[in-house]
Each structure stands twice: as C-alpha cells, then as structure tokens.
Amino acid sequence: MALGLAARDCPLILEADVGPIVVEFENELTRFTTAAPFSSLPSPLTRISAAELLGLEEHLVIGSPVLASCGLPYHLVELASLEALVWARPSPGIWSDRVSPSGHDQVYLYVAGKEAGASHIVRARMFSTPGGVREDPATGSAAAALAGHLAQNRGVGRWRWQIEQGVEMGRPSRILAEAERTEDDLSIRIAGEAVIVGSGTLHLPGGLTLSREAP
Fold this sequence. Notes:
The protein is of the alpha+beta class. It has a domain at 12-40 and 101-214: Roll (Diaminopimelate Epimerase, Chain A, domain 1), CATH 3.10.310. 15% of the residues lie in helices and 46% in strands. The chain contains four helices and 14 strands. The strands form two sheets. Strands 1, 2, 3, 4, 5, 6, 7, 8, 9, 10, 11 and 12 form a twelve-stranded mixed sheet that branches. β2 (19-26) and β3 form a beta hairpin. The longest helix is centred in the C-terminal third of the chain and has 12 residues, at 140-151. The chain starts with 11 loop residues before the first strand and ends with a strand.
C-alpha cells in the first residue's frame, strides 16, 4: 500500500457489491480471495462473431467464447497467437450489435503461453464500454474469471498463472492468479503490486493543501 492508508500487518476488508473481500499483504504483493463463486455460461459470441468483432480471421479464435464470472462477467475469448492479440481491434459497431445486448460489456482476450516455474504465462487484453471501446492495463476481476475458467475442467489441485496485461497499450502489468480446487470448492486468489503513476495537490482556501498519489 504505497499511500500508507492501510496497515500491512493485518488484512483489509473491502465491502463490495459481491460481498466482503479480504485483502492480505505479503512483502510487496497485495492479494485478495474472490468473494463470489465462479460461474460460467456460453457467451452469445461465437467464433465467427468474435473474429468479426476483433477484425481477425476465424481460425485465430480458439474454441467457443464463454461468459465467466467471479462477480463481474467477462466474455473470455482465446486467441491462437500473440500476433493475433496484437492485431485485435474491436469494432464499436459490431460491439454494439453483438456484445452490448448481453448486458455484459467486458471482453477479455487471452493467449495461453508457456510454463514459467510453478506458473503458466498468459497474455491478455481487456476491453470494455461505455464511453467508447476502451482498454484497461490491469483487471483483477477479469483475471479471476479467467483463472476459474482455466481451472474448471481440472481435477483436485492448485494451479498458478502469471497474467501479463497492458503490454499492447504501453502500460505492462503482471497479475498473479491462483486457483485451488477441492472435492467441494474452487477458491481463486489474485495478487499484484502497484506503482505510482500520478500525483496531484489540491490548494484549499486558507492556505491548506491536500496531496495524493495514485497507484
């Protein structure tokens, strides 16, 4: 917590719409466990419509997109290569016709990569609306949905992924995702670090100032 607004020696509880989220600290990492259970449904996007949306050839979309959620649903679209991830350019018109009617205006593109120690490397991009189709450099809720999706067809065990996002927009981030499946449950944890990207000072009447830094 670079701003010093929370003590690192005890958990922080965030009261979110999906329920209380426990945030813990480990060295420079901040980690939370998802509060809502993982769920997955077929996405209204097909391979063909997803390819049209992204301006890609159909063979560059792997399998059928799904609508996965740990509280906030994302259309998960797997692509065949990093080149396809770079080439992806969502069309606002097709988005309006194919994505917005679902009521879930979040699309998460990903490319499954190689193993790196105990983790698997995944590259991802997240696009959303309103206000035009916009890209986000780091999206913890999307990473949680992806981790649940990647783990749902596996047996009992624990898996880790290093999700690299924001590379294509010049704001690279690294999200650490972990999924642990037991006979009765699927637990998903997300971790990462923050850096200062901006600061500002508000000059108040009476000569008072208020300064803040934004991670």
